[in-house]
Amino acid sequence: MFSKELVTLAGLALVVPQVWAGFSSSSNKNVAVYWGQNSRNQATSQTRLADYCSNSEIDIIPLAFLNVIVNPTTVNFANAGDNCTTFPNSNLLSCPQIEQDIKTCQSTYGKTILLSIGGATYTEGGFTSASQATTWADNIWAMFGPVQSGSSLHRPFGSAVVDGFDFDFETTTSNMAPFAERLRSNMDAATAAGAKKFYLSAAPQCVFPDAADHEMLDSSARFDFVMIQFYNNWCGASNFVQGSSTQNAFNFDVWDNWAKTTSANPNVRLLLGLPANSGAGGGYVSGSQLDAVIAYSKQYSSFGGVMLWDMSQLYANPGFLDSVVSALGNSGGGSNPPSPPKTTLTTVTRTTTTKSGTSPTGSLVPQWGQCGGQGYTGSTQCQPPYKCVSQSVWWAQCQ
């Protein structure tokens, strides 16, 4: 490991290799970090995608979010969208900077770059029929997969091709199984025809079965890895009991059983999803609790590493990524998250999708704290002038 002091990206590039592997199905040390939503919500807390790809401790970067599927009118990448323009006669963003950065992250640094579909502001509820689901799976594939000759669909990332798709749905959906199955079929066909390998992932809540994603997770679609949100829920990492061989709340064992007995891919990898900072989600853990919950999860053969929400929060929490990597058992080649240049992106002008939250204190919950959701037993009253706003069946927060 390098010094705990922050280093510049330029300095980091001089001391680490130029190419690292992305997701590995044979590894239990994968690290995924979501980028795009700037949940820390400060103008300089999220810079362009390529700024983060030189960090050798990160393997997978899901881009969050495509939050409209049927006739998509937008992609939402918070302040990163300020460097995009719109296609003619459309509100859909064209993002040449992200296009360039995806290619750099893939070719120079070997990162696995996924497009995450959904997010907390996704409201379509899935599809009206299986036919509509497969139609839009084909369209999303044409928009973000390999360039298809003759297609008239807009491509927000231009000629860049993502390495796959991630599903992050947080409310009940319909006909998601055929959507996932068709995307999987398209990806496998492209790989068989000589294209690169593509990956399918999902980010369910730890509550089992997940209300939004269970249909697709139990379908014939083969998921390569599943990044379970062990936060914002009673089954989260903060309720893991150190020193106990049995857990009443933390339920990685339940997900491990699903992976081995129900998943279409019996070798699916499960990533332990955690908040990257105290403001990133309810149930942030660090220190001995972080080490203990990772050590416990590693005993399961399906364990594939750690997912963190999100990049802006991680880079505001020096030393946390090193702690995660150390607990996973990785050695060397990494650093604390460096401070990205503060001039890369302009100020935030677009609506962000956050999963932020802090633990309630007293009888009134502070801004961004949890104030409701299934299984929640704390205060539901927010400090003035904030109101309790539902984000999903599992989570409501003071905004």
Automatic annotation (TrEMBL):
<keyword id="KW-0147">Chitin-binding</keyword>
<keyword id="KW-0146">Chitin degradation</keyword>
<dbReference type="Pfam" id="PF00734">
    <property type="entry name" value="CBM_1"/>
</dbReference>
<dbReference type="InterPro" id="IPR017853">
    <property type="entry name" value="GH"/>
</dbReference>
<keyword id="KW-0378">Hydrolase</keyword>
<keyword id="KW-0326">Glycosidase</keyword>
<dbReference type="InterPro" id="IPR000254">
    <property type="entry name" value="CBD"/>
</dbReference>
<protein>
    <recommendedName>
        <fullName>chitinase</fullName>
        <ecNumber>3.2.1.14</ecNumber>
    </recommendedName>
</protein>
<dbReference type="InterPro" id="IPR001579">
    <property type="entry name" value="Glyco_hydro_18_chit_AS"/>
</dbReference>
<feature type="signal peptide">
    <location>
        <begin position="1"/>
        <end position="21"/>
    </location>
</feature>
<dbReference type="InterPro" id="IPR045321">
    <property type="entry name" value="Cts1-like"/>
</dbReference>
<keyword id="KW-0624">Polysaccharide degradation</keyword>
<comment type="similarity">
    <text>Belongs to the glycosyl hydrolase 18 family. Chitinase class III subfamily.</text>
</comment>
<feature type="domain" description="GH18">
    <location>
        <begin position="29"/>
        <end position="331"/>
    </location>
</feature>
<dbReference type="InterPro" id="IPR035971">
    <property type="entry name" value="CBD_sf"/>
</dbReference>
<feature type="domain" description="CBM1">
    <location>
        <begin position="363"/>
        <end position="399"/>
    </location>
</feature>
<keyword id="KW-0119">Carbohydrate metabolism</keyword>
<keyword id="KW-0964">Secreted</keyword>
<keyword id="KW-0732">Signal</keyword>
<dbReference type="InterPro" id="IPR050542">
    <property type="entry name" value="Glycosyl_Hydrlase18_Chitinase"/>
</dbReference>
<dbReference type="InterPro" id="IPR001223">
    <property type="entry name" value="Glyco_hydro18_cat"/>
</dbReference>
<dbReference type="Pfam" id="PF00704">
    <property type="entry name" value="Glyco_hydro_18"/>
</dbReference>
